[in-house]
Amino acid sequence: xxxxxELIKQYEVEGLEGLxxxxxxxxxxxxxxxxxxxxxxxxxxxxxxxLQAERHYAxxxxxxxxxxxxxxxxxxxxxxxxxxxxxxxxxxxxxxEKAGNVQFVAELIVRAATCYQTWGAEEKAESLF
Length: 129
Prior knowledge:
- The protein is mostly helical.
- It has seven helices and no strands.
């Protein structure tokens, strides 16, 4: 669990932020920092939120994990990343099950399966049940 948490922390700091906000990225694409930030929000906000949720989960920060899973799901849905919404719901369900919040598990699994089916991943959707 500790290694998992450390990898997530390192990826948050060095991964998306380091790559997309670096001077090299803006120079290569001839984009302003504002343009890059807009792309980051559209393309990566949900991923960063999911990484943060998993990090909070790994560190036992339950309330923060709940909040970040919810925000990650909302962001995935808002930006129409149906496959990533599915993954977020699946991971959130696993978190809630382990945390003893069983009232959320069934709803999240059904939503994950629906998203996987919409994306065309029928077998993956069926594997959740």
